Amino acid sequence: MKRTLITGAAGFLGSHLCDRFIAEGHEVFAMDNLITGDLKNIEHLFPLENFTFYNHDVTNFVHVPGKLDYILHFASPASPIDYLKIPIQTLKVGALGTHNLLGLAKEKGARFMIASTSEIYGDPLVHPQTEEYYGNVNTIGPRGVYDEAKRFQESITMAYHRFHGLDTRIVRIFNTYGPRMRLNDGRVIPAFMGQALRGEDLTVFGDGSQTRSFCYVDDEIEGIYRLLMSDYTHPVNIGNPNEITIKDFAEEIIKLTGTDQKIIYKPLPKDDPMQRQPDITKAKEILGWEPKVGREEGMRKTFEYFKGLSKEDLEKTEHRDFTTHNKK
Ligand code: UDP
């Protein structure tokens, strides 16, 4: 039986990865310190014999007894609200956490994958973004703690690959959505869905002309799994190239949810990327992967999930601190 360690296991992507690796017959060691993760996302796995949960902060020394075949480092705050609230932890989990886990991978002879991100491209000047683009990142802006941690994570992973011969994979994840997103993480999809369900107006930041390209979680997990199982060691974009402006997206959500609320406009957060779309030529060629779930179907499934949350969960919302925003 393959033995696989997944960090950030109680989070959105981490919990879906746990499900996938359990389904593939692995023994899964799930690690999370629950700062942003939620045990509800993985509690259905606790009765399984081949599932073990460690409540551990990977910025401290990490130990897992016995052999490990795969390590997937998916622990990190992943929303602009979180970066502002816990900036030091965001830097530490990307830097110190990655270093600890690389050490563990080396010790165990395990294949190592890091969750990188489209944020390493910053506010991109090249469109769509190919893996060859070096990015346009403000190191000292509010997103810098995440973007630079992720850039460092890629560098140290390649250093272990080149210097120690470690078997490594780097996935650059673009905006992904689906069930188990945290309702109060401030990102656009949970924000809009929460607002629609609470009967509030939808808050579009800036004039809404900025674009994103949203990938349904099942597609994302399939791409990640294929990359891990491939022999390709350079970064690969995994995301859905179907691009939309945030204003048009808000209108889609109003239609989907049937809310009679309207759009209201708020200041654009500082360093908010104006456009984002993955070039997935590499993923297509190397992994034979491309997304299959369209936005309408994916959003419908996601809305079903949010509709199922308790009233109490729905009220636990947080609002962005606009003091760090650009005046626009
Ligand atoms: N956004 C918005 N209203 C919200 C939350 C986000 O208009 O209530 C915008 C945000 O400014 C950004 C886009 O939606 O342009 C996506 O934001 P998110 O935080 O989901 O992810 P990002 O891709 O910026 O990391």
UniProtKB/TrEMBL annotation:
One MF annotation (Gene Ontology) recorded for this entry: NAD+ binding
CC terms in the record's Gene Ontology section: cytoplasm
Cofactors: NAD(+)
Main location: Golgi
EC numbers for this chain: 4.1.1.35
Localization, UniProt: Golgi apparatus, Golgi stack membrane
Keyword 4Fe-4S: no
Single Gene Ontology BP annotation: D-xylose metabolic process
Annotated metabolic or biological route of this protein: Nucleotide-sugar biosynthesis; UDP-alpha-D-xylose biosynthesis; UDP-alpha-D-xylose from UDP-alpha-D-glucuronate: step 1/1
SUPFAM superfamilies: NAD(P)-binding Rossmann-fold domains
Keyword entries, A-Z: Decarboxylase, Glycoprotein, Golgi apparatus, Lyase, Membrane, NAD, Signal-anchor, Transmembrane, Transmembrane helix
NAD(P)-binding domain segment(s): 5-302
Its membrane topology: Single-pass type II membrane protein
Family per record: Belongs to the NAD(P)-dependent epimerase/dehydratase family. UDP-glucuronic acid decarboxylase subfamily.
PANTHER family registered for this protein in UniProt: UDP-GLUCURONIC ACID DECARBOXYLASE 1, UDP-GLUCURONIC ACID DECARBOXYLASE-RELATED
Official protein name in the record: UDP-glucuronate decarboxylase
Organism annotation: Flagellimonas zhangzhouensis
